[in-house]
Amino acid sequence: MAFDATFFALVGLVLFFVLIAYLKVPGMLASSLDERAGNIKEELAEAKRLREEAQHLLAEYQRKRKEAEADAANIIAAAEREAAALTAEAKVKTEEFVARRNALSEQKIKQAETDAISAVRSAAVDLAIAASEKLIAEKTTAATKAGLFNNAVGEVKARLN
Q1: How many CB atoms neighbour CB 140 within 10 A?
Q2: How far is CA 20 from the centre of its chain?
Q3: Which stretches are transmembrane (predicted)?
Q4: pLDDT by residue for the chain (161 residues), tens digit each?
Q5: Closest to 79 (Cα-Cα) out of 67, 87, 69
Q6: Which residue segment(s) compose the domain that 47 sits in?
Q7: How far apart are CA 156 and CA 161, in angstroms?
Q8: What is the phi/psi pair of residue 24, to 5°?
Q9: Helix spans in the chain (H)
Q10: Measured between alpha carbons, how far is 51 from 45 in angstroms, rounded to an integer?
Q11: Residue 146 lies in a domain
Q12: Spatial distance between the Cα atoms of 19 and 87, rounded to a whole number of angstroms
């Protein structure tokens, strides 16, 4: 019987399978694959848990954002109401100020008119007295003057007693 290369290749293959079986390589491969599958399942479970946690956080942040937007809208509305109230108050105060200023101006104008009328009357009285003095001085004689003087002195004496 002649052994050729195919026979030795077959014997080598059989010895290889026996050695693999003796060293429990298929079990080691299976356990390694099982361990890897377990790791992958754990990673998938962790990824799923992280995804759910991320979704929960996203929902919470969206809720907080909506609350913050609502708060901002309330703050803006309050600020607008306050601005409107301040504007109305300023308008009322301005109108009151203008009314007071107008009344004060009218009062000053009336006072100026009264002062002007008094000044004109005073000037007219002074002018009339001066004109009367001049006329009386021109038209009266010495005898009339003496009589008027005596008359005035008599009235003064009568009033003093």
Answers
A1: 13
A2: 84
A3: 6-23
A4: 577 899 999 999 999 988 888 888 888 888 899 999 999 999 999 999 999 999 999 999 999 999 999 999 999 999 999 999 999 999 999 999 999 999 999 999 999 999 999 999 898 888 888 888 888 777 777 777 788 888 888 988 888 87
A5: 87
A6: 23-135
A7: 9
A8: 60, 40
A9: 5-22, 25-139, 142-160
A10: 10
A11: no
A12: 98
Q: Tell me if 103 is assigned to some domain.
A: yes
Q: Write down the pLDDT at residue 148.
A: 81
Asked if residue 114 belongs to a domain, the reply is yes
Q: pLDDT digits over 74-105, tens only?
A: 999 999 999 999 999 999 999 999 999 999 99
Q: Is 20 helix (H, G, I), strand (E, B) or coil?
A: helix
- Number of folded domains in the chain? 1
* Contact (Cβ atoms closer than 8 angstroms) between residue 140 and residue 148: yes
Nearby residues of 26 by Cβ (< 8 Å), 6 or more positions away = 20
Backbone angles phi, psi at 36, to 5 degrees: -65, -40
CA distance 104 to 108: 6
